[in-house]
Structures are given as C-alpha cells and as structure tokens.
C-alpha cells in the first residue's frame, strides 16, 4: 500500500465515522478559545473546561484580562498544571493583544506565536478551529497516531509530523483532520493500551500489522 492510498483510507474512514469532529474545549469566541488552549498545555480538556467558566465570568474579554493581576487570576487556575507560568502567560497575552493588536485576537500563525504562552501548536489550533485555515496542530496524540498508522515516516519532531501530514491531506480537510487524529488518540489509539480490537483503521495500520506479525 502506498502512502497516498493509506491517507485516502484513513480520510474516508473518518469522514464516515467522525464527520463532525471538533475540539472538546468549550468556548464562545476566539478570546475564550485562546485562553483555553493556553491552559490546556499538558492538561486535560476536561480539567480546562471545569476551570474556564470562573475565568470568563471575572474576565469576560481580553481587555478585562489585560487588567488582571497575578494575585487575582492565579486562584482561578491553580488546579491547572503549571499555574504560575500560565497565569503570567495569560496576563501577558492579553496585554500584548491590547497593545499590539488593538484588542483583536490575531488570525495568523506568525502573529499568534508572538504572544506569551503561544507556541506553534497553539497558533495552529486557533487558526484551524476559528478560521478553518489549513494548519495542522501536532500534540502528543497526533504525533503518536500518525506514526502508528504509517502516515508519517521517521518523524522526530512535531514540525516534521506536521509537514508530512500536510503533504497528503487535502487543504480543505486539514482543519478537521487535526480533530480526527486527536480524538482517535484520546479514545482509541491510547498510548499504553491501544484499543486495536475496536479500531476500524486496522487494515492500514502499520502498528497493528507489527502486533499481528509478532503474535502479540
């Protein structure tokens, strides 16, 4: 099977089984999504969704957040991983948005990565989810699933994974393919105990083929 054929199978499978895949973070606008994604680094979406309502109640927009103090914001996110850094990042992000972007959340990756707490993955999430730009955010799930399926070959970094995926995924499907791979990794292709018996991608999965060969 060629890589092109493998991608075609995977895309067709998800189009039929997860046509409406989307982020599990709860948000109402770009500001809220940006806050949620910054908080989600090395933290579950479930925990973030439990935390953000109190933040948005006290800081309903980026202008309000830009006026926050560390001592006021920290108690609202102390249950999140790395709360000290994320508190500083959120305040710094909001202040830069107000000062450098006229209070509007940037809509391009180069602009977004200038913000405190925003790396390439976060910028790709914002631009793909909000604006449906063909940007592929690579987290641990996307990295793992892509490698196991054989969609990527010897990709050592998230950027290499991103670049390889973008070679074969049609531009108009990139924004949803990001969610397909994340959700598959979150619920089926688990890191330690993948649920291969429940996976409809077994026919093209290199990882599963290896398991069958070794009798595991």
Describe the structure.
GO terms for molecular function: 4 iron, 4 sulfur cluster binding; class I DNA-(apurinic or apyrimidinic site) endonuclease activity; DNA binding; DNA N-glycosylase activity; metal ion binding. InterPro entries: DNA_glycosylase, Endonuclease3_FeS-loop_motif, Endouclease-III_FeS-bd_BS, HhH-GPD_domain, HhH_base_excis_C, HhH_motif, Nth. Its EC number is 4.2.99.18. The chain has 216 residues and is mainly α. The chain folds into 2 domains: 3-21 and 138-214, Endonuclease Iii, domain 2 (Orthogonal Bundle); 30-131, Endonuclease III, domain 1. The protein is 61% helix and 0% strand. The chain is built from 12 helices and no strands. Helix 2 (30-40) packs across helix 3, helix 2 runs antiparallel to helix 8 (120-131) and helix 9 packs across helix 11. The longest helix has 18 residues, at 83-100. The two termini are 23 Å apart. The relative contact order is 0.12. The mean pLDDT is 94.
């Amino acid at each position: 099977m060629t890589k092109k054929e493998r991608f075609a199978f995977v895309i067709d499978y998800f189009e039929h089984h997860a046509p409406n895949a989307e982020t599990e973070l709860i948000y109402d606008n770009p500001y809220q999504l940006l806050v949620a994604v910054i908080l989600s680094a090395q933290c579950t979406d479930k925990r973030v969704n439990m935390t953000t309502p109190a933040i948005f109640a006290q800081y309903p927009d980026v202008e309000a957040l830009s006026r926050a103090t560390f001592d006021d914001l920290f108690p609202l996110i102390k249950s999140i991983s790395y709360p000290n850094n994320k508190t500083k990042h959120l305040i710094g992000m909001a202040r830069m948005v107000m000062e450098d972007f006229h209070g509007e959340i940037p809509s391009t990756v180069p602009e977004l990565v200038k913000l405190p707490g925003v790396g390439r993955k976060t910028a790709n999430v914002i631009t793909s989810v909000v604006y449906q730009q063909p940007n592929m955010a690579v987290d641990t799930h996307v990295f793992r699933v892509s490698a196991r399926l054989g969609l990527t070959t010897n990709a050592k970094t998230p950027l290499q994974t991103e670049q390889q995926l973008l070679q074969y995924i049609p531009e108009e499907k990139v924004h949803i393919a990001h969610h397909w791979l994340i959700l598959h990794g979150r619920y089926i292709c688990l890191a330690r105990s993948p649920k291969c018996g429940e996976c409809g991608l077994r026919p093209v999965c290199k990882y599963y083929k290896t398991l069958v060969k070794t009798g595991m």
